[in-house]
Every structure is written in structure tokens, then in C-alpha cells.
Amino acid sequence: MKVLLAGANGYIGTRLIPCLLEKGHSVVCLVRDKRRFKENSDFSDRVAVITGDLLQEDSIQAFPENIDAAYYLVHSMAEGSSFSEMEETSARNFVNALQKTHCKQIIYLSGISNDEALSQHLTSRRRVEDVLKESKSALTVLRAAIIIGSGSASFEIIRDLTEKLPVMTVPRWVNTRSQPIGIRDVLFYLENVLLNESTYDHNFDIGGPDVLSFKQMMLTYAKVRKLNRYIITLPFLSPKISSYWLYFVTSTSYSLAQSLVNSMKNETVCRNNDINGIIPHQCLSYEEALRLAFMKIEQNSIVSSWKDALNIGNLRSEFMDQIKVPQNGTQEYKVKIPFKNGTEQVFKNIWAIGGNRGWYYWDWIWSIRGFIDKLFGGVGLRRGRTSTDRIAPGDVIDFWRVLLADKANKRLLLYAEMKLPGEAWLEFKIVERDSKLFLSQIATFRPNGLWGRLYWAAMFPFHIFIFKGMAKRIVNYGQPY
Fold first, then answer.
1. Which of 133, 279, 310, 449 has the least C-beta neighbours within 10 A?
2. Which of 358, 352, 355 is nearest to 390 (CA)?
3. CB atoms within 10 A of CB 370
4. Which pTM value belongs to this model?
5. What is the C-alpha radius of gyration for the chain, rounded to an integer number of angstroms?
6. Is residue 176 within 8 Å of 267, Cβ to Cβ?
7. 127 near 222, Cβ under 8 Å?
């Protein structure tokens, strides 16, 4: 059967594609930019790809008429008064485009929302459900709470908090109960409701066997990791203070932290268990899901990560149109270092930059810069990177976003997502001149007015030491002496 997948570049969509292909389905992926999908997907040559920004109806390519079913896996963690309107617009444009097809079923992954007074995000999810119901296609809604898997937002936040803080003073929302579910089980349900007529026009709560508070989840994580952790609940911490606490301690953005804190007032425990009568399945326990996530991390086989979503940073969806670094109105600092030991090791060092490897030189300065960025509301340095040896356009490397990852021409181009009075690019490439090999490293800054120029002047002395030292270490790292 032919299946349309909206949200193919997202955390869930990236993992669902191989599951559908394995079952022999023909998959059509709706993405905003084919180039990013093709460079970021191991399955790009086995699926059909159409483009469209669901917030701009005119940009959406016509869906194939012979679509049998469609997955709507489009979510946003944005904040602000227009957030709900954007989600509703996206869903409505999707429904309008789908009306011209023979689609029998829409499958939507939503959030458990059984309380009467819901957070803004859970309210928006329910509104999206209402819009999707207006389609002529039958709607199946799977409602999940906290999803546990390598690279999931919930798992990474629990991991950050528990790994970094031996003693935690926490807000009272950590006592709110939830029913976490492993990513493997979410994918199982998404696969098995497909064109299952018993699920048409129904919504189902899905969750694992454990009902736990966020506090219990952190303590269970500590037990699995053999860590001693102490948690002290402070009832007087306001939602705003709680959001800042979560923002500074974890790799999450402030908007996501605010969203999570506001949603924590709602219990997300399954009430509707009808799915068990239609698709019997034994879900992983919370502890089993944690162990499976760590197995993937240790094997360096994280398939997707929430941090790589473009709406987590400040880069526009058409970022691949910007891979040519501007020349006018910019300041540059260039370093060119010769080397003689062949390109392979030097290129591996470029490809491994950031994350656990660090930035090769004066990492403490990079850490201070990341902390300052957090103080001003930026993304900070804690996002790391999804894989130690794979990079694709759109991926996150600490407070940079990958614009270009060109193995053939040995070039890596990064765009800064830290708070700056301007825009910044950092380019690495291996070049050959007169039969000699060089590492070329170029930092480019386009200042925004007087403050931008003052910032560049103030940082320039640091650049001389940092970028020269970094280039020398990249060339020599791993080389025999």
C-alpha cells in the first residue's frame, strides 16, 4: 500500500520510515527541503519525496491521488500567542491537500490529555485532532505521554538532570504522574493501526506498564546508571523559575523548558485502554526502555534526536539556500595550516569536532561562551551532537548548526545559533596547493550595526589564539609522533 508521511525529518518520522519499508509499503515523504532529506536519510533512494511547508499552502506539492493512508507527525515546541494558530493552520493545510486523494485513514500521534484544564501545548494537540477529523478520511489518534528512547527530548532531559546533579532541589511538578512509553512500542502501534479498520475514528491512550512521577523516573534512571542521587522538592518554585532551572541545567531551549513545565501540571496517565483489545501488545517497562536507549548510545547508533529539529534553533527551513558564505559586509579570520600525513586522519578530526570530542583547544573558553549564551537566552553548549561519526545538513553540533557536510570535497560549514549581534559561520576544508596539503579554517562574521562591530573587535584577540590553536590540534590530533 502507498503511505504518505508528513514529518519525515522528525524524531518519530525518521524512525518510522524503515519500519514501513520493511513491511513492503510504498512510502511518500513530505518534507520542506528535498536536499536535507536526501543527505540526512539512509532511505532517500527507496522512497518518493514531495516538498511543501504546511504553513504555506501554496508551497505544497500535490499529494499522489492513490495514497491509501497518511501519517501526520508534525509537532512544534514553539511558544507564544501564535503557536496554536500555527499548529491549526498546518493541520488544516494538510487536510485540504489530502482531500484530493483517495486516502482512507489519517494517523496522528498526539499527547495524553485527559485532564479538564490542559496546558497550551496539550490544548493545541487536541485542536489539531479536531481539524484532522474534518477530513473525509477516517482518523486514528494515538495519544502518548513521555517517550523514552535514545535522542528523545524526555530521555535527554532526564539524562541531563540525573547525570549532572548529585543533589537536586526541584519544583513540585516532579511529583506529577505520567505513563512513559518506549519509542519501540510507539513505532509498534503506529505500524499496526495502519489501515486497521477497528481503529478508524477512534483515539487511544498508549503507555508502558509503569505509572511514575518525574521524580521516580529520575531515581530509576539513577538506579540503572548506579548513581546515588538525592532529590529535595521545593513547593514555592514558580513555573517561570522552574523553566529557567530546567533551561540552565539541561540541553533544552528555554521555549521547550517552558512548554514542558507548563505541561507538567497535567497528569498523563492512560485511561482509555481499548487499544489492548484491538492490538494486544506487551510494552517495555520504563527500566527496559532506559536500558535499550543506553545500548543504542553505547553503539553510537542513535537514529534521530529532538535536538536536530530546526524549530529548536533559529535557522530557517530553507537554510540550504544559504550554504554560500556571504562576502560583502563581513569580517573574516582565516587560518591555513600545512600538513604532510595524508588527509584521512585530518578529515576524521574535522568530522568528529564538538560534542564529547570538544573543540580541540581551550575547551574551557568554549564552555564559558556556552554559559554566557545561556544567560542571554541562547542554546548554550550542552546540545552536543547526535552521532560521533555521522554529520548531515541540519544536524546540531553544540551551539552550531551544520549547513554543509561534504565528504567528497572534504568541507564542513557551520552556522552559529548562539546569541550574537550578527551572524557567524565557521568553515573547515582540506585544500591542495602546489602539491601541498593545507587545513583551511575560516571564521566569518556579519555584524549587525555598531554593537556587532564592537563585538567582533572585542573577540578578535581571543580568535587569534583559539582558532590557530584549534587548527594546529586538528592537524596533529591522532598523528604518530
1. 449
2. 352
3. 19
4. 0.80
5. 23
6. yes
7. no
User: Whose CA is closest to 380, among 396, 369, 391?
Assistant: 369
Cell for 39? 543527505
**Band of pLDDT at residue 449, cut at 50, 70 and 90:** confident
Q: How far, CA to CA in Å, does 364 sit from each of 61, 141, 388, 428, 466?
A: 48, 47, 20, 21, 11
User: Phi and psi dihedrals of 107, rounded to 5?
Assistant: -115, 125
SS (H, E, C) the chain: CEEEEECCCCHHHHHHHHHHHHCCCEEEEEECCHHHHHHHCCCCCCCEEEECCCCCHHHCCCCCCCCCEEEECCCCCCCCCCHHHHHHHHHHHHHHHHCCCCCCEEEEEEECCCCCCCCHHHHHHHHHHHHHHCCCCEEEEEEECCEECCCCHHHHHHHHHHHHCCEEEEEHHHHCEECCEEHHHHHHHHHHCCCCHHHCCEEEEECCCCCEEHHHHHHHHHHHCCCCCEEEEECCCCHHHHHHHHHHHCCCCHHHHHHHHHHCCCCECCCCCCHHHHCCCCCCCHHHHHHHHHHHHHCCCCCCCHHHCHHHCCCCCCHHHHCCCCCCCCEEEEEEEEECCCHHHHHHHHHCCECCCECCCCHHHHHHHHHHHHHCCCCCCCCCCCCCCCCCCCCEECCEEEEEEECCCCEEEEEECCCCCEEEEEEEEEEEECCEEEEEEEEEEEECHHHHHHHHHHHHHHHHHHHHHHHHHHHHCCCCC
User: Greater confidence, 255 or 463?
Assistant: 463
Q: What would the pLDDT profile of 131-183 be if each residue is shown by its tens digit? A: 999 999 999 999 999 999 988 888 888 888 888 889 888 878 788 899 999 99
